[in-house]
Amino acid sequence: MSHQDHCPPARSSSSRRRSASAGQLRAIGLVGALAAAVITAVGCASMPSPRELDAQAAAMIKAAFRDEGIAKVDRIQQDLAQSACSSDKAPPPQVMQRIMQEAMATVKFPAAGQYLGDWREGERLAQAGRGMTWTDASADPKGNGAQCYNCHQISKAEISYGTIGPSLYQYGKLRGVTDPNSPSAEPILKYTWAKIWNSNAYMACSGMPRFGHAKLLNDEQIRHVMALLLDPKSPVNTQ
Ligand code: HEC
What we know:
By secondary structure, the chain is an all-alpha fold. The protein has three domains: 3-46, no CATH class; 50-77, no CATH class; 93-238, Cytochrome Bc1 Complex, Chain D, domain 2, CATH 1.10.760. The protein is built from nine helices and no strands. It has helices spanning 22-46, 50-64, 80-86, 93-106, 119-127, 171-174, 186-197, 219-230, 235-238.
């Protein structure tokens, strides 16, 4: 919609002044119509388009922040997925398709097909929410937590968890992963790795952080949370 769409055509006010004489009517009508035209013209000329308003809002937000330590203002720049999924309308199907394809193309699968690490480390990471703040000395993911419990149920022992995401309790067991090294387990390992690396690969407007893509976790850390979900010895699958 262009901003002209908001501007009503100028209309004479004469028809609304039925009690006035013909002369008065013409005079009032003329003045009224002129006033209306001027207001309309000034109002419309100075009314910014939605695009201009967006730009103004973005400039205001940008001006409200400053670089501080590892937290740089460039974090507020949105990529296609972020801007399309922040709109008041769901992105059209072909945009969603593009977001998912581009997200999938970002995924780096682990060297030598080494998908799983240590589930104990995975549990520690899943519990930890620390990282990415301006008080952190380094942007290296190795100091970050994975905060999976903020959104998911995972092990039975942890009863404090968020529910924005689906429960991941018995994740590997429910998917029949009894031997992670078997060829039949590979599709599940690949899917889970890609989901954690860049959640948009399977859902264009996912609310889950893009852990690998956004450098929140490194490969070793992703292996550990993978083991928490998929190692048959992990309490997620034994209990
Ligand atoms: C901010 C919330 C949030 C955080 C933090 C989060 N997730 Fe998610 N996750 C979601 C949501 C929402 C979904 C479902 C929508 C989707 O598929 O993107 C999901 C889906 C998933 C799925 C797919 C489940 C299935 O059955 O296919 C997996 C696997 C997963 N998350 C693992 C993790 C792991 C591991 C972590 C921590 C490293 C994590 N998530 C952190 C929100 C989150």
